[in-house]
Amino acid sequence: MKAVVFTLGCKVNECESNSLIRGLVERGYDVSDKLEYADLYIVNTCAVTKEAEKKSRQTVSRIKKFNENAKIIFTGCATQCSPKKFIEKCPDGLVTGTFNKGAILDMLDKSGVVIEKDQTEFEELAPVKSLRTRTFVKVQDGCNNFCSYCIIPYLRGRNRSRNPENVINEIKGINPLEAVITGINLSAYDFDGQGLKGLIKGLKDVDCRIRLGSLEVNVIDDEFLSTLKELKNFARHFHLSLQSGSDNVLKKMNRRYTAKEFLDKVNLIRKYFPDAGITTDIIVGFPTETEQDFIDTLNLVDEVKFSDIHPFIFSPREGTVAYKMPDLEYSVKKRRLDVLMEKKKECRERFIKENVGTTQEMLIEESINGYLEGYSGSYIRLYMKDQNINGIKRVKLISPFKDGVLCEII
Ligand code: SF4
């Protein structure tokens, strides 16, 4: 029997999907993570924006084109948010939410809506069976922060963290080339009083490259950065959520730092890791964002010199505090997005230019059209003329190429 586990949204969803893949393989399924013909589909949905939710629902018609009679199971944030919309689109399907995802594997022949309301303990899913050389390892779920624009705390429940022993065993069991430590709010990791620093200390005997998922600035301090320095093979890449460079907007967003504090933390990172890639997410067009607020964001982007930014247009999510605030005109939001997309281009080009001529470690992930492709620790996309090699190789960065840098082995 053929099964597809199709994933929308974040890396946490990807981890959970990988566990489901493992469970299906153990049950004898031939499993793919791409939308193609299958007998069974599990769609792991996303609700971070209205658009993401819509895309999640649109998978029904895409699947029906491959197999009109396939069994479809929906799970994830969008189904937790609006299960009815999914069951209406697919009355023979099964709709589950964000909690107790492992139970899906025991409900493959069931239909209807099974949505649980909460989960207080971290759910241990089947160890990941990754289809790639880089594997995402989920260590935390839920969030207590309630940023005013974000629906995730309502859909994924409160902060809960994974036993570090299980994290280490999972990484050693998979033995990937790179493990990406991931959570909904990774900075809130706390197992029996051991914060993220404690978890990282436990990873110092792990052989693979360790990359951290998205972080909040509150977790960055000298001790945290010294702990990272002690890792054998730390990918020098920090994804620090900024969201806005205006103190007024940050306050309305219920983010708990100022632009100055953010900049100070970036400078602290550069003290320990001068060559680190520093990326971020920024929301444009938050309801109270004035032209000056937006300029403050642009100025902070210039000051920080990010290696890349991921700009998003504010998307009002029902049930959040920001949903009740007056939304800005779409044309204003779109113009700000376009300006920030230009800044993104500048950031990427500058970082690439700074890194040409350096030597870095490339994790070779795939071979496409005559080139090996992969990432440096600092998260630069690297390309190398195809040859019979794999793994992590020391390379010299030669010249800008496509969306990254052409390199050669040394
Ligand atoms: S930290 Fe804020 S943005 Fe991130 S999941 Fe929690 S509430 Fe959402």
Please provide a written account of the structure.
This protein is 33% helix and 26% strand. It is of the alpha/beta class and 410 residues long. The chain folds into three domains: 2-114, Methylthiotransferase, N-terminal domain (Rossmann fold, 3-Layer(aba) Sandwich); 134-353, tm_1862 like domain (pyruvate-formate lyase- activating enzyme); 359-409, OB fold (Dihydrolipoamide Acetyltransferase, E2P) (Beta Barrel). The protein has a six-stranded parallel sheet, with helices on both faces. Strands 16-17-18-20-19 form a five-stranded mixed barrel. The protein has a four-stranded mixed sheet with strand order 8-7-9-12. α11 (291-304) links the parallel β14 (277-284) and β15. Bound molecules: iron/sulfur cluster. The site of iron/sulfur cluster has 9 residues, from α5.
List keywords for this structure.
410 residues, alpha/beta, Rossmann fold, pyruvate-formate lyase- activating enzyme, OB fold (Dihydrolipoamide Acetyltransferase, E2P), 6-stranded parallel β-sheet, 5-stranded mixed β-barrel
